[in-house]
Design brief:
Layout: E1 7-16, E2 19-29, E3 34-39, H1 45-52, E4 60-65, E5 71-73, H2 86-91, H3 100-109, H4 122-136, E6 140-144, H5 152-164, E7 168-172, H6 176-182, E8 185-190, E9 193-197, H7 204-236, H8 245-260, E10 281-292, E11 295-306, E12 310-314, H9 321-328, E13 336-341, E14 347-350, H10 363-368, E15 374-375, E16 378-384, E17 387-390, H11 391-397, H12 414-426, E18 432-436, H13 444-456, E19 460-464, H14 468-474, E20 477-481, E21 487-491, H15 494-500, H16 504-512, H17 535-562, H18 567-570, H19 572-604
Helix pairs in contact: 3-4, 7-8, 17-19
Length: 605
């Protein structure tokens, strides 16, 4: 028997600011669907997801959620007011017996549930919102850029979690590797139309190109037909005016059809121009080290950066990647060692915090107010690589329309803010490009263009990113920071780095995918950090005894609750839910004990 769909959108129409976003849109999400939602920045992906989640009311049409189906929407900017800590927010509306799910998600997503709300960063708030959604385990999850503010290890944990869930989900992400692994269907928003393909994101680009090619062929045939009919109208209509009015009307209809076709938005006209050629040695680092208080950020480290190098810096959040970059460029002084910068350096920096953008400024002022872009005596011109250009024309190069020029920066989406930063960055010549998380929120087409530009750039690139696919496409060297002060240089991109340190892969798999236990081991005692383990493994070994103790306590409570002989008769739904929760904890306990055994054996050598 066919299962009812989780969600149906029927004939949805929605208009913002007089412009139609969707018109006559219908789609269905089935149980177990794993759907990539893709489209250009500004195409309406987040808006459609909010319509699906009931957060935006359409002008016309209906949103039908099947009876008993729960949905969860991951907010980009969650409201945590009224809560003291991140954990309190994440556990809200959860039964006490299920609060352990938040602790498990917090560990995987790497945030402290005890962190006070008023001291939490934006990234920590987003991670708490994601943990809350995962802990609630709705039948349909709506995930808008869930990997933003996650490091590579946390992205791997989230991949594993989503690959194992039975829930359906719709996923917006710029991370190609993430989408390729997780999705089985694709929704593509293109000029207000939503198309669906029953294949995952891996096949999206071929599908897009085939669709556009067929569209171009059809438009070409229509143009030829219009041209032929127009020639007939000019040459022969006077002799057959009465008999051929139908053909004249047909020509008018053809022209109306052609004019109604929505032109595809082209790629952003981004360009990078190198400044004066730098010296062959761009940065020469000898034995630099850095400590903040008792925390070791970097142990003595050597690196030689030559002209034209593409170096990616990878590692967990907080490992010190941005600090290392700032030491390399002279912004932060090392505690020991030396940094020698080469000659004729002109540095351009893309800042992941978007701090260069004032949310209260208009896009116009964000460009003309930049001292390095200002044209003396002209308020409507910006200097673009040494040549004056009208500010609106330059904004159009980055896919902003004229109406947006006077809009505040705060009205932009994440991807549009990233494009505005790129517009500022690419206006000035440079020969050393420092890019700290440039890929966040950018659509696939803009990522492709940025990759091509970096490939053609004559200067040197230092890149901090958690986007594994982008690193593979751009980097020729990878510096891995493991979080314990060690930084190691590897040839190639992300995949090359992983291949060169195969000993790390089992540790990652053990942490993210515990093996099924063969037997119940002895309850572990609190472990001491062992020299044979990596930093993350030591941390995990220390944490596991407390996790095991908590799971045992929860199982005891559930067993006591289920011991009531009349429970099944009085509350069969509660009995069923408690039984399932007990089974989940039994499995989680077995997995945790097996993982503890594995790490103990590795520590013992």
């Amino acid at each position: 028997m066919a299962r009812a769909p989780l969600l149906q959108l029927n004939d949805i129409s929605l208009t913002f600011g007089g412009n139609p976003v969707f018109d006559g849109l219908s789609l269905t999400v089935q149980p177990g669907d794993r759907v990539a939602l893709v489209g250009r920045n500004g195409s309406g992906k987040s808006t459609l997801m909010k319509v699906m989640g009931g957060l935006v009311e359409p002008d016309k049409g209906e949103v039908v959620l099947s009876a008993g189906v729960s949905t969860g929407y991951m907010e980009q900017d969650p409201d945590l007011s009224g809560f003291e800590t991140l954990g309190e927010f994440a556990r809200a509306d959860l039964p006490e017996a299920e609060s352990y799910r938040v602790d498990m998600a917090a560990e995987g997503l790497k945030f402290d549930p005890n962190r006070p709300i008023d001291t939490a960063s934006g990234g920590e708030r987003r991670r708490a919102a994601l943990a809350r959604l995962l802990a609630q385990a709705p039948e349909l999850m709506l995930l808008d850029e869930p990997t933003n503010h996650l490091d590579i290890e946390a992205i791997g944990w989230l991949e594993d979690h989503l690959s194992q869930t039975r829930a359906g989900y719709v996923l917006i992400s710029h991370d190609r590797a993430f989408l390729r692994r997780l999705t089985r269907a694709t929704l593509w928003i293109d000029r207000g139309e939503v198309r669906r393909q029953e294949r995952g994101f891996e096949h999206f680009e071929d599908w897009r190109e085939a669709t556009w090619s067929a569209e171009d062929d059809a438009r070409h045939k229509l143009d030829r037909k219009i041209k032929a009919e127009a020639r007939w109208a000019v040459e022969g209509i006077s002799a057959r005016r009465k008999r051929n009015q139908g053909r004249v009307r047909a020509l008018a209809a053809l022209r109306a059809e052609r004019s109604s076709q929505i032109r595809r938005q082209g790629a952003a006209a981004m360009a990078l121009e190198s400044g004066p050629t730098s010296g062959k040695k761009v940065i020469d680092v000898r034995g630099i080290a850095k400590t903040f208080g008792d925390r070791v950020i970097l142990r003595p480290f050597d690196l030689l950066v030559n002209r034209g190098d593409r170096i990616a810096f990878v590692g967990p959040n907080g490992a010190g990647k941005t600090t290392l970059i700032k030491m390399l460029t002279g912004e932060v002084a090392p505690d020991e060692g030396s940094v020698t910068l080469g000659t004729n350096l002109e540095v351009a920096i893309f800042d992941q915090t978007r701090s260069a953008l004032n949310p209260d400024q208009t896009l116009w002022d964000a460009l003309t107010g930049d001292p390095e872009m200002r044209v003396s005596g002209r308020s409507d011109q910006v200097m673009v690589r040494g040549v004056p250009k009208h500010v609106v024309a330059y904004l159009k190069d980055f896919l902003f329309d004229e109406a947006q020029a006077r809009a505040p920066v705060r009205s932009l989406s994440g991807g549009e803010k990233a494009r505005l930063l790129l517009a500022r960055l690419m206006a000035r010549p440079s020969n050393l490009l420092v890019m700290d998380e440039p890929t966040n929120d950018l659509d696939v087409e803009t990522l492709d263009l940025l990759q091509d530009l970096l490939g053609e750039y004559d200067g040197t690139v230092l890149l901090v990113s958690h986007d594994r696919d982008f690193i593979d496409r751009v980097a020729d060297t990878t510096v891995a920071m493991e979080g314990d002060g060690r930084a190691t240089v590897y040839a190639g991109g992300w995949s090359d780095y992983r291949a060169q340190r195969p000993e790390a892969e089992p540790a990652v798999q053990a942490a993210d995918k515990p093996a099924k236990p063969a037997a119940t081991p002895e309850k572990p005692k609190a472990a001491k950090p062992q020299a044979g383990l990596s930093f993350s493994e030591k941390h995990r070994l220390e944490a596991l005894p407390a996790i095991i103790e908590r799971l045992e306590a929860e199982m005891a409570k559930l067993s006591q609750f289920l011991a009531d002989p009349e429970l099944f008769q009085k509350a069969p739904a509660k009995f069923q839910k408690a039984t399932e929760a007990l089974a989940e904890r039994q499995q989680a306990l077995s997995d945790a004990e097996e993982e503890w055994l594995t790490l103990e054996e590795k520590a013992a050598g």
